[in-house]
Amino acid sequence: MIGLILFIAIMGFTLRRSGLTWPERFVNDAFGTAQGALYRPVGAVAGFFRDLGRLSDVYKENEELRRTVARYTQDQIRYNDIENDNRRYKEELGFTDRQKQLYSYKYAIAQVIASGSNPYDKTIKIDRGSRDGVKPRMAVVTIDGLVGLVSQVSEFTSTVMPITELDSTSSDTILISATVSGKEQQVFGIVDYDKENGVMRMSKIDENANVAEGDIVVTSGQGNLLPKGLVIGTVLSNQVGDFGLTHTATIAPAAKFDHLYEVFVVMTPDPDKP
Length: 274
Prior knowledge:
Blueprint (H helix, E strand, L loop, with lengths): L1 H15 L5 H81 L3 E10 L8 E3 L12 E3 L4 E8 L4 E5 L13 E5 L7 E7 L4 E8 L9 E4 L11 E10 L5 E8 L8 E6 L7
Antiparallel strand pairs: 1-2, 1-12, 2-5, 3-4, 3-12, 4-5, 6-7, 6-9, 7-8, 8-11, 9-10, 10-11
């Protein structure tokens, strides 16, 4: 009862006052200072843990962004490959359509599966063989021009000898009968590869023939070895040949041998079949 009476008396006394006594002000200031001193480090610690939580979220977001960028990069590479393949296939389709309109040859597309890096063996291997109708000495071309001749045939694969490796000094060499495209007067010659000078040449050209730089050399179809009209290359120069009786032209190959992906095997009709 005494405590209750004192509590009511103090409440009535404080309600009637408009200010605080100096002990109350001292206690309030002391508590305020202590609270301020404690609030700053506690707030800093709380902010630190809050920032750690945010860093974890940022890390997760960065991981997701990295995965998204990686997927985008892979998709971009795949898209570029598909786009390049489509463009190449369109060019090759146009090539075969043009050739079919000119001559009755069949063109079997083949993938290049190996290309010899050995300087003594620069042959090319393709994924077409005897079961696909490929035979030795068939011509192999790209949309740019003649690549070479089939030299060996297995059941599922074949080996192609590039025209830049046809050695005219070899006993089993293959000489290509050629002509110059677009001339009113026909020009004939024999194309081989000069290993000593590292160039292709068209020899035995008639001295009166009009052969100039930039002329397109194609297969003549004579000799029943290669089909007619396959582009071999472009004339770089023309000079007097052996004994001054014929001329010899230097030729730049039309086919690009450093980027071979797909080639065509020219399937000519078999003359032995009825």
